[in-house]
Batch of 2 targets.
Target 1
Amino acid sequence: MDVDSDSDISLFGDEDPRAKGKGKGKASERPRKGKAKRKAKEQAYTWEASYTRSWDTVQEDETGSLQGSVEDLMARGRRRRLLAPASAIRRTIIRHLVLILDLSNSMMDRDFRPTRFDLALRYAREFVAEWFDQNPLGQIGVVGMRSGLGERVGEMSGNPQDVLRSLSDRAKLEPAGEPSLQNAIEMARGNMSHLPTQSSREILIIYGSLTTCDPGNIHETLEVCVKSRIRISIIALAAEMKICRELSDKTGGKFGVAMNEGHFKDLLFELVPPPVQQATIRNAGSGSGNPPADLMMMGFPTRLPDTSTPSLCACHSDMKSEGFLCPRCMAKVCDVPTDCDICGLMIVSSPHLARSYHHLFPVKPYEAVASLDDTSQSASACHACARPFPAAPSSGVVTEGISPLGRYRCPDCHHDFCTECDVFVHDVVHCCPGCGK
Ligand SMILES: [Zn+2]
Ligand SMILES: [Zn+2]
Ligand SMILES: [Zn+2]
Ligand SMILES: [Zn+2]
């Protein structure tokens, strides 16, 4: 296949495998080609066979209760999430993300309920809320792909309400026509071209189509993105396309095909924590080695009370009372975090900065306790919530990071914590209650 221009699609077969798997009635209407196909139809598809339904693995305990199994299942899922790298890593906390939504006709497919479009929109809103919670110094812009064009849906903004508002009007975003990856990426790139080097530039594409309709060579766009260190992540709702895989692989982003609603959400929310800065990605553009950490200038603004005299803001030329004053040039801006429109200083509020801090110094993962060798030393209750540990066999085997005793020990202060507190400390508190690290 000539992979020169816009339509280099590589599917697993010669037709969309999802269409066959999802709608049985639709599939049987299609003409079958050859015996192999007919035979394959009788067998379970591999992607169906490998899928273990969570309710099949649940076992009742002696008393016929499911409680134990359910807890075990939940604990395992949560602990798996905690197995992420915990050493101090370099992350970008000042993030700039452009969310590109496919608004083409293919988004009206009903293989995701109620439609791909409605589900994508709902998850996008949840994603934006969660993203701003974890990345208070970040900014998100929204671009739509519709009728072969890139459309600016929402300006780059650090205010979650602005972004959510741009995603809330369903009628305005009604899908139409063909998508154009190149046009949308070029527009997103234009939104981010002015950004300073220490901030991350990311593009997240939710893509429901199997084609793209581009004015030029998208590989040239890809080259430029690699040079300007834009990380492109793509979540496909239909099937894998070669160009999508290439876009994300070459720019250091992630690529995934959503298998069902839950998986779609998982793929999306994996992109919420700030990305790790990798040496290879950083070197791709400049050619210099891993640069030393450099200081950056930030200003903490003065907040104007609602009762102050109305004046024009520097960003929109609106007459209003509330706002923030740039500490360097005293210009008035509407929202933080932002770059001052007059002097270019980065303006952040200190609580935002403090909330971003924990990503850089994660709490060490607690060790699952396998056996109580020294009973005199071990506390009988969780150090954080003071709930007594269950009376369990004194030893057992740690499987998938689950302690048979329900005890998790901090490697620094050697206090024991229960499962719930373990997850709460690592996901929410970001500070060990035993040692404060
Ligand atoms: Zn303004
Ligand atoms: Zn200023
Ligand atoms: Zn506890
Ligand atoms: Zn500790």
Target 2
Amino acid sequence: MTTQLISFILLAGILLGRWYAKRDRQKHILLMYLFVGADILLVLFLAAFRDVLGKVKVEMSPLLYFHIAIALAVVVGYFFAITYGRRLDKGDENSRKKLIFVDRIVIPLRIAVSVTSLFFIGG
Ligand code: HEM
């Protein structure tokens, strides 16, 4: 329950940061670093220590594999988004369409991560 809640709070922060992209560049950058950074830490922490914490009560179902796979794909996508975001910030307009492309994949996948996490409440 706690991890699902944190996951949704971080998602809300990321969506807020994204909302600022066209409104306040500095706020956008700050919020993305903050929430995307925390999100990466959460995913890596859960991937590495979930078993250690003895939280694996559910069997490794296909849905759990799917959930973990998209969560890791999102982390990879974040690195591309940060790379293109930094380049765009330095004035490389070519990075804008690449960032938008990554954004269109990463954000829906990130929403799917939070939604599928609900199936593992108590697990
Ligand atoms: C997961 C992380 C990120 C996502 C999903 C994301 C997404 C977006 C989106 C959708 C836009 C609007 C592009 C447009 O329609 O023109 C944007 C703009 C921008 N982003 Fe990000 N971004 C992320 C992280 C970052 C980071 C880390 C930086 C810089 C260090 C950054 C710098 C910028 C800049 C400079 C703009 C252009 C703002 C403007 O037009 O004034 N982004 N971002």
